[in-house]
Design goal:
There is one protein chain. The protein has about 55 residues and is mainly alpha-helical. The protein has 2 helices and no strands. The mean pLDDT is about 90.
Length: about 55
């Protein structure tokens, strides 16, 4: 099942907000170790899907 663009944007912003909610002085959980790299890849894929579907950003 392929998610549509608004669903992907909502997911991406939710995950970015979760990452930003952690105070810099507090060590993030182990599950966040590679989160930045995953978010960058997800954003690139999202931009590709937006351009493939003809959305204007």
């Amino acid at each position: 099942m392929k998610k549509d663009v608004p669903q992907r944007i909502a997911y991406y912003t939710k995950k970015v907000a979760e990452k930003a909610a952690i105070h810099p002085a507090i060590k993030p959980p182990r599950s966040h170790k590679y989160r930045q790299q995953r978010l960058i890849k997800y954003k690139a894929m999202l931009h590709q899907q937006i351009s493939d579907e003809g959305w204007k950003i």
